């Protein structure tokens, strides 16, 4: 049985860890929040005493952390990287800085492989096993971790180490542009006499459709704007995208405009506020309402208690 270590049990990592435990993997889990560890244990994981303890027992060691500096603190400063045993694979699920990933891989003990595999699909995707995972690394290492990652969703092999994060940041780049634009479209339509429910239906059945329109708009309609991901984390990812931009040699005005829109929202509502408040700023300034009656289940309340097929590896 493959021994899996999992560090970082937040809104994305928690349901991923629970899903692996319910699938039958031998999972050891750690988080600085004991309540999150307890939730993983309830799903079948074993509590580790520390991130280092978790890493030392793992064949495949997964980290899912908010920011690159958290990854560096756990893996390098905290000693988890050095604790990995020869033959193990560290898979970082964090949306990360490709230069940091490369530097940490250089510090990995002999015989330890590294794969970067950030995920997309939001909290409900993590809870129902429908994530997409972008994996970068040596082909053999990526294939070795495929069964674990495909317990969480669909894995796409992207190329050498670091390309997983490049692909994730490109997908986020397009999401940020769409998220910054959706409020503008809603405001234009509503202010000029179109009912919001009619406008939304038309967008979803036209060239205006997007993941934001189909998946995220209900969080705007409900008025909570999806606090499972913060404006601060949006700006973190936008800074990582800016790092990729820097050597491009071409202007990216839409990406720059999206960065500006999220900064305006963070300045108004605070960095820890919900990501889709980027639309609320337009809603407020245009003096229109984006509330829409409906049974909008918050992403963090999607049921993840169902079992999955047992693991046979």
Give the number of DSSP strands: 9
Low-confidence stretches: 307-313
Largest sheet: 6 strands, parallel
User: Would you state the CATH class of the largest domain?
Assistant: Alpha Beta
Furnish the topology, listing elements before pairings.
Elements: E1 3-7, H1 13-22, E2 26-30, H2 34-42, E3 46-47, H3 51-56, E4 60-63, H4 68-77, H5 80-83, E5 89-92, H6 98-106, E6 113-116, E7 119-120, H7 122-128, E8 131-136, H8 139-149, E9 153-159, H9 163-191, H10 196-204, H11 211-222, H12 231-245, H13 253-269, H14 277-286
Parallel strand pairs: 1-2, 1-4, 2-3, 4-5, 5-6, 8-9
Antiparallel strand pairs: 7-8
Helix pairs in contact: 1-2, 1-7, 9-11, 9-12, 9-13, 9-14, 12-13, 13-14
């Amino acid at each position: 049985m493959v021994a899996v270590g999992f560090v970082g049990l937040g809104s994305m990592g928690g349901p991923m860890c629970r899903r692996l435990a319910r699938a039958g993997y031998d999972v050891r889990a750690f988080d600085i929040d004991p309540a999150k560890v307890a939730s993983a244990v309830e799903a079948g994981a074993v509590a580790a005493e520390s991130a280092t303890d978790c890493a030392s027992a793992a064949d495949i060691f997964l980290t899912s952390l908010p920011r690159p500096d958290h990854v560096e603190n756990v893996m390098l400063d905290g000693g988890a990287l050095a604790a990995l045993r020869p033959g193990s694979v560290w898979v970082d699920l964090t949306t990360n800085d490709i230069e940091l990933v490369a530097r940490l891989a250089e510090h990995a003990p002999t015989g330890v492989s590294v794969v970067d595999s950030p995920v997309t699909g939001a909290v409900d995707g993590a809870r129902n096993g429908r994530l997409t995972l972008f994996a970068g690394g040596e082909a053999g290492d990526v294939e070795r971790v495929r069964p674990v990652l495909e317990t969480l969703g669909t894995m796409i092999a992207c190329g050498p180490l670091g390309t997983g994060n490049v692909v994730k940041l490109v997908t986020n780049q397009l999401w940020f542009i769409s998220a910054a634009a959706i409020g503008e479209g809603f405001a234009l339509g509503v202010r000029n006499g179109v009912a919001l429910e009619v406008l939304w239906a038309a967008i979803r059945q036209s060239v205006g459709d997007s993941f934001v329109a189909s998946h995220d708009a209900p969080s705007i309609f409900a008025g909570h704007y999806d606090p499972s991901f913060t404006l601060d984390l949006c700006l973190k990812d936008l800074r990582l995208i800016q790092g990729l931009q820097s050597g491009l040699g071409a202007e990216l005005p839409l990406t720059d405009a999206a960065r500006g829109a999220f900064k305006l929202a963070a300045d108004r509502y605070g960095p820890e506020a919900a990501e889709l408040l980027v639309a609320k700023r337009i809603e407020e300034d245009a003096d229109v309402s984006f509330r829409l009656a409906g049974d909008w289940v918050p992403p963090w309340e999607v049921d993840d208690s169902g079992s999955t097929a047992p693991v046979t590896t």
